[in-house]
Design goal:
Chain A: Keywords: ATP-binding, Nucleotide-binding, Transferase, Ubl conjugation pathway. Chain A: Belongs to the ubiquitin-conjugating enzyme family. The complex is a heterodimer of chains A (about 150) and B (about 550). Chain A contains four helices and four strands, in the order αββββααα. By secondary structure, chain A is an alpha+beta fold. A four-stranded antiparallel β-sheet of chain A has the order 1-2-3-4. In chain B, helix 15 packs antiparallel against helix 17 (about 455-480) and helix 17 (about 455-480) packs antiparallel against helix 18. Chain B is built from 19 helices and 14 strands. The chains are: A alpha+beta (about 150), B mainly alpha (about 550).
Chain lengths: ~150, ~550
């Protein structure tokens, strides 16, 4: 494996030294480009109290192309599908090499606080979110309790 | 020489025209084909080099008027359909707003604080999150220390990018610990000499290597003239000169130039790439109309406006609608309009293998129309009606089910005829081969020389042209509202179809002695075709 770019080393160091509140990202011991991520559900959101596991991978041409991020914990959210794939513009066409792992994870945390059912990935969830928001939020709470809260 | 004798000369030019087809018509044609030929279209086929020259002339003209770099001129022209005057006017009116509009300059002159690696630590996580989310509102905490005010006068010498920007606030803020000449690149996080850095008018500064790697990634994705600044939420455009300064690999430079050329051609309203496979030709016309252009290099014939197959008298929107519909329903339609029909008299199964709709059963010798299966005797005159679809007058009172059936029936009526003529066109080559074979046989038997028979090829070419137009009358009729105009259209369509079938029949059975008769028939068919086009294929402004 080729040597790790300075950019990745710097980012990793800062993630460890000055972690973002509510976000924890640790590189895999065998692969410095693969991160085990934990995001806590934001307060005042239906995901409050949940601990969500994600995986993050930095592709070969990072930071020219965006990191690949996926939810591992099941989550009821209009912009996240059954496989945990996330619909977020900064991970796709709005990616900029000036963005970082921490800014991306902050965006994901913000997405949990503000779901956007008008740009859906999980169609049935988005539909319910639009038609009956209270019911959708109730579902999201239940899923959070069921899948994201450790006993 | 008097004007009168001039007239006579031009009369003699059309010596083959008969008396009724008087010289006056012919005269007009000589004077102004734009008025007499509804399909008349002026265009030229250009090579890549010729188009490059053409575009460069535009760029140079703008350079000299406004005193700007070619790179900037290209962006301005690209965004204004290559109309020099519009750019010049806008520039003189308000250069600043023009540069903002074309994304040469940022909308407001401030630098995003979340940009720098070191700066992120300083900002609160909330502010960073706000900047990171997809919300389009610009982040509020902006510290505008230096605003580069550019007056229109000084723009001429302004380069669209700059090297080692000492004016940007980020440098002094972020690198207090570093010596003045050294900076940290926010992308690769390495500290380098200041002269390794480049920035656009937005002031976002990155090192040379990162820019170049970024450009290569974008070029690889097929992006060229639309490459934007690397900074997040910054949409300032990267002009050609910076890309070509920093991308050093020859392959990538070439790719960039190819993609940029494509963007330039596509943004130019007078230019069209020939749609022929692997064809490099670009067609140019000052008239942007749905007219037929034929590529001189590969022979591809297409509609100049939409790039699809030529489709007169139908317009671009309708033909698109029709083709989409055909793609949807084609399987059903294919199934229903099978390739064979039974003879209406003796019921023997017949496969159509030639272009003509006038069928003669080889078994019982019955003459009938392939379209309606009726007796051909009723088809000789102007009462030829099998091209016309008859609406059920009572349709509004029928049930939904019946209406749906009627709709399908209507569609199939038009589709069958569309498909039928399309097949006839495909059989044209076979017909031509047979024609050639027949001529050879005749010549061998001593009935006329090979030259005597040449007129048949002209006739066959004209037949193909007429059939092509006829094919495209069916989508037109399908989307037409019922009424007197549709009645007129279908009347003319029927006339055209009847004459085409006549012509087809005559070509298949022609002898050398039939020359006059056949030429007469050719003339009639072409007249019907142009009449229909004149009335229903309006020349757009």
């Amino acid at each position: 494996m080729s040597s790790l770019p300075r950019r990745i080393i710097k980012e990793t160091q800062r993630l460890m030294q000055e972690p973002v509140p509510g976000i924890n990202a640790i590189p895999d011991e065998n692969n410095a480009r693969y991160f085990h991520v934990i995001v806590t559900g934001p307060t005042d959101s239906p995901f409050e109290g949940g601990i969500f596991k994600l995986e993050l991978f930095l592709p070969e041409d990072y930071p020219m192309s965006a990191p690949k991020v996926r939810f591992i914990t099941k989550i009821y959210h209009p912009n996240i599908d059954r496989l945990g794939r996330i619909c977020l513009d900064v991970l796709k066409d709005k990616w900029s090499p000036a963005l970082q792992i921490r800014t991306i994870l902050l965006s994901i945390q913000a997405l949990l606080s503000a779901p956007n059912p008008d740009d859906p990935l999980a169609n049935d969830v988005a539909e319910l979110w639009k038609v009956n928001e209270a019911e959708a939020i109730k579902n999201a709470r239940e899923w959070t309790q069921k899948y994201a809260v450790e006993d | 020489m008097s004007a009168d004798s001039d007239m006579e000369y031009s009369d003699n030019d059309c010596e083959y025209d008969d008396y009724y087809n008087s010289g006056e018509d012919c005269d007009v044609e000589h004077l102004d084909p734009k008025k007499t030929d509804p399909e008349y279209f002026e265009y030229e086929c250009l090579t890549v080099e010729e188009v490059e020259k053409l575009l460069n002339e535009s760029v140079e003209k703008l350079n000299t008027i406004l005193q700007i770099t070619p790179s900037l001129a290209k962006v301005l022209l690209l965004e204004h359909q290559w109309i020099n005057q519009v750019v010049v006017d806008k520039y003189r009116q308000n250069a600043n707003s023009l540069l903002v509009e074309t994304r040469i300059k940022p909308a407001c002159n401030n630098t995003d604080p979340s940009l720098e690696v070191e700066n992120v630590a300083a900002t609160t996580s909330a502010a960073a999150a706000a900047a990171a989310t997809e919300s389009s509102s610009t982040s509020s905490p902006t510290t505008t220390t230096t605003t580069v005010v550019v007056t229109p006068q000084s723009l001429g010498t302004l380069s669209t990018y700059s090297k080692s920007p000492t004016t940007t606030p980020t440098t002094s803020n972020s690198s207090s610990s570093l010596s003045r000449s050294q900076m940290m690149c926010p992308v690769c996080a390495t500290v380098q000499q200041g002269d390794k850095f480049y920035s656009l008018s937005c002031g976002h500064s990155f090192c040379k290597d990162c820019w170049s790697m970024y450009f290569e990634t974008q070029i690889f994705l097929g992006i060229s003239t639309q490459i934007g600044c690397m900074a997040q939420m910054c949409n300032v455009r990267v002009p050609e000169d910076l890309v070509l300064t920093l991308v050093t690999r020859a392959v990538m430079r070439e790719k960039y130039q190819q993609f940029a050329f494509k963007d330039y051609v596509k943004s130019h309203p007078e230019l069209r790439f020939c749609p022929g496979p692997n064809c490099q030709i670009i067609v140019r016309s000052r008239e942007i109309a749905a007219k037929r252009a034929v590529c001189t290099a590969c022979g591809t014939s297409f509609c100049f406006k939409c790039g699809m197959d030529y489709h007169a008298p139908t317009d671009c929107q309708v033909i698109r609608k029709w083709l989409t519909k055909c793609a949807d329903d084609s399987e059903t339609a294919n199934y229903i309009s099978a390739n064979t029909k039974d003879c209406p008299k003796c019921h023997i199964c017949i496969e159509k293998n030639g272009g003509c709709n006038h069928m003669q059963c080889f078994n019982c010798k019955y003459d009938f129309c392939w379209m309606c299966l009726g007796d051909w005797k009723t088809h000789g005159s102007e009462y030829y009606e099998c091209s016309r679809y008859k609406d059920n007058p009572n349709i509004a009172n029928e049930s939904v089910h019946v209406q749906a059936r009627e709709a399908l029936k209507k569609y199939l009526h038009y589709y069958e005829r569309w498909e039928n003529h399309s097949k006839s066109m495909q059989l044209e080559q076979q017909t031509l081969d047979r024609l050639r074979q027949r001529i050879n046989e005749k010549v061998m038997k001593g009935r006329g020389t090979w030259i005597d028979w040449q007129y048949l090829f002209n006739a066959a070419a004209l037949l193909a042209k007429c059939r092509y137009t006829l094919q495209y009358t069916y989508p037109y009729a399908y989307f037409m509202e019922s009424g007197s105009r549709k009645d007129l259209f279908e009347y003319q369509q029927a006339q055209l179809e009847a004459e085409i079938e006549n012509l087809s029949w005559k070509i298949e059975r022609a002898e050398t002695t039939d020359l006059g008769d056949l030429e007469n028939q050719m003339d009639i068919a072409e007249k019907r075709r142009t009449t229909l086009l004149k009335d229903f294929f309006p020349v757009e402004a």
